[in-house]
Amino acid sequence: MTMEFLNLKVPMALGGAHGKAPAGSTEGAGNRGRRIEQIALAVALIAIVAALPSLNIGYRFLSIAITTGYTAIALYGLGLQFGQAGIMSVGHAAMLGVGAYTAAMLSNHLGVGFWAALPASIVFAAIAGGLVGLPSLRVSGQHYIIITFCCCALLVICLTNGGKLTGAATGLDVGSIPRVFGINFDKLFNYYYLVLAALVITLGLVYAIVNSSYGRTLRSIRENEQLARAIGINVDLHKIGVFMASGAFAGLAGILQVYYLRHISPTLYGAFPSLYLALMVMLGGGRLIYGPLIGAIIVNFLPEVMDLNPVDSRIAYGVALLVVILLLPGGVSSGLLAIYRWICGRLFGRVSKAGS
Amino acid sequence: MAALEINGLSKAFGGVIALGGVDLSIPDDRITGIVGPNGSGKTTLFNVITGVYPPTGGSITWHGEDISGRAPHQIARKGLVRTFQQAMSFPGLSVKENIQIALERGSRQLRGQAPRWHTPEDLLDFVGLGGRGGDDAGSMPFGNLRRLGVAVALAANPVLLLLDEPAAGLSDGEANMLADLIMKLPEMGIGVCLIDHHMTFMTALCQRLIVLDFGTKIADGTTQSVLTDPKVMEVYLGGEL
Q1: Cβ of B47: how many Cβ atoms within 10 Å?
Q2: Per residue in B216-227, pLDDT tens?
Q3: Which of A 161-220 lie inside 8 A of B, CB atoms?
Q4: Which residue does chain A place closest to B90, by CA atoms?
Q5: Which residues of A touch B151 (CB under 8 A)?
Q6: Among the CATH numbers 1.25.40, 1.10.540, 1.10.3470, 3.90.320, which is that of A59-310?
Q7: Rg of chain A (C-alpha set)
Q8: How far A10 CA sits from the closest chain B CA (Å)?
Q9: Which backbone phi and psi does A139 adopt, to 5 degrees?
Q10: Any chain B CB within 8 A of the CB of A353?
Q11: What pTM was computed for the model?
Q12: A220–B92: do the CB atoms touch at under 8 Å?
């Protein structure tokens, strides 16, 4: 994994020195080796995840995996915004809500099905993302975070008071996804693969963005907005851009959520779900490619694995967040990476250094 | 007419007049120095020129085009690139990535020239940071950080480079190395305008000095004539008793 790709300060004591990409690595053979290593890792992970349902893991596990999948898609958007551009949001569930309600309203009022509603959900959520991003041009830091929280609360109020249009507090129901090539998405297995496909596309897109010149531009805004402007970067434009990208991923997550749950109501997109999204991205780490996915897996599977009730699980999340912030500011993913590097350093020693 | 023409430029922050009608012309083919005591409006001048603050009055003309009140990124794209006293680099990124970000910007503003530096390594070699590309910009020694700041600005392909106190906090040795670097720029087609307090540094570099005091220009001419100007002596050493 290259440093351009990870772009994270790993504590030196944990072997961070191995992580620095030496000068000239972009065109070097070592970098190609790392690319291959990354692709191999991604393919292996996808293969394992794709093979899971055939292991007879049960419906409960599968349904949590689906939740994890679409949540991770939304988290990748938030990861771009928070990890790359450095702007946190505690109202990100509202973006999911826009995507989900777009699909549900199209289905209920205009009879538009999943496939036609898919681009609409993405586009509307992207527009909503851009609108919520507008205040960030004026206010920053905690002040902006409060604004995102307010936007989220505002959306819930609108949805609750939307009458027949939004189904008010009861919410809306949707039908099932029409068959494509005879695949019945009412079957949990097939829905699992649909979400997995969307997640893989998301991963690919986010990886491409992070490693592009656009990704570097976003990181420059995160690190020093003033200097970014002084070298000719249109900071305002790129901020709105990243909010729209972030919203688009949330829109995709939203439509996958509504067609999975088949029923949505405003409470799904309020303060608590928003805080969970922020929690997951911070736990997993927003800057590393697997960070959001790891965050989603931990938060969704933790209560199941540890057999916690909803109240206890909140306490567990709180403790986990404190531990991560104090010990691993880059999230669990950065900790795993440091361990991986340490092991590689021990196993291959100088070889991995010279090869990079 | 010089590349950068400033006429009657003023900037007030509430009741505080930071710049009170400054007229300047700064060419883009040599090194021009701006000196003045603390609070004389030097940095404010840079901030107004580069669009950080809109001017209260007056005009700024760059190659015949009025640029007053434009956004900082628009001014930078026209070839007026500055450095900062404090915010010199993108601290959380590698040195190489710092340069890469700016080079990608600079390559979009080539103005018909061939790029001066093709890779981040070329530019790092030029500023004397060769082989440091993998370092974390945030944990660099101060002298190297200053050079990285200059390298980032150079990568953005300036026509006129505005350096805000580049020698502040540097040892004499480091300041000399930086001066050697700045000295090379005019022959590469990059004009330099710099602010500094370090007088030996400034006299070595600049053929022309401009002196500001309380937001107005009190002297402008060859370095030698400015240094012997009685008004300048009064500002720096105090008037006769």
Answers
A1: 20
A2: 998 899 988 988
A3: 213, 216-217, 219-220
A4: A223
A5: none
A6: 1.10.3470
A7: 21
A8: 11
A9: -120, 155
A10: no
A11: 0.86
A12: no
Distance from CA of A146 to the nearest CA of B (A): 25
Position B123, amino acid:
L
Provide ipTM, 2 decimals.
0.91
Structure tokens at B61: 């003309």
Residues near A41 by beta carbon (within 8 Å), at least 6 away in sequence: none
Contact A48, B145 (CB under 8 A): no
Q: Domain map of chain B by residue range?
A: 1-72+160-241, 80-157
Residue-wise pLDDT tens digits, A164-184: 888 888 889 988 888 888 888
- Closest CA of chain B from A280, distance in Å: 22
B114: which DSSP letter? P
The residues, any chain, with a CB within 8 Å of residue A187's CB and separated by 6 or more, are: none
CA-based torsion, A338, A342, A344, A345: positive or negative: positive
Spelled out in words, what is the top-level CATH class assigned to the domain B1-72+160-241? alpha beta
Secondary structure class of A44 (helix, strand, coil): helix
How far B83 CA lies from chain A's nearest CA (Å)?
A: 8
- Which residues of chain A make contact with B133, given a CB cutoff of 8 A? 22-24
List Cβ neighbours of B226 (8 Å cut-off, separation of 6 or more).
B209, B210, B211, B219, B220, B232
- CB of A325 closer than 8 Å to CB of A291: no
Say yes or no: A2 contacts chain B, CB-CB below 8 A: no
- pLDDT, tens digit, 9 for 90 and up, residues A297-309: 988 888 888 888 8
Q: Given A23, A222, A230, which is nearest B72 (Cβ)?
A: A230
